[in-house]
Amino acid sequence: MYAVISKDRISMPPGSVMRIPGTWEEYCQLRDSRGDGSIPRLKYHQGEISLMSPLLRHGREAHLIATVVTILLESQGRNYEAFTPITMDLPEVSGIEPDYCFYIDNWQAAVGKDRIDWQVDPPPDLVVEIDVTSYTSELDFLPYNVPEVWLFKNYKLAIYQLEAGKYEVSESSRYFPDLALQDIIDLCFATAKEKGTGTAMSELRKSY
Asked: What does the alpha-carbon distance between residue 72 and residue 70 come to, in Å, rounded to a whole number?
């Protein structure tokens, strides 16, 4: 299968990544050419457009980790708003489509909204990204001042927290400071592989 990239049509083999020079206007044309779809994923940064067609594994891992976040928040009685898919954009500066966004401390800023103005409204408190193809980076979210970014790659969780205008690796999450998140995720993946995701999530709920 060959990749086809035009203003009218985008087709890419699963797992492929492409980077091409392009303007903000060209990025917007490609983004809009997908209609109501969200594949391939697109991002824009400094005159470069990146495209990624996710593998099945990508969606599975994103769903599992986002569900872990949801269960942990609910176990603590904390309200939240969550979005996927979603496009974050700052015209002429950045366009990015994270796997999941969570509003936790600022859930009231997002509740009931159909659109978010990234130049005015607060950013998500937590972004979850799955990196199967080296397509994403925590730095993609720096223009938006996202407080915390989770990057999950090769079954390992890296937590980045925004400190003094840059991201620093952290051993724990500011939203779950007392939890060993890597251990929780490892157990969930092991259970899901043996018994299915539904069972893995059910067992997690019983634990918390």
From this structure: 6
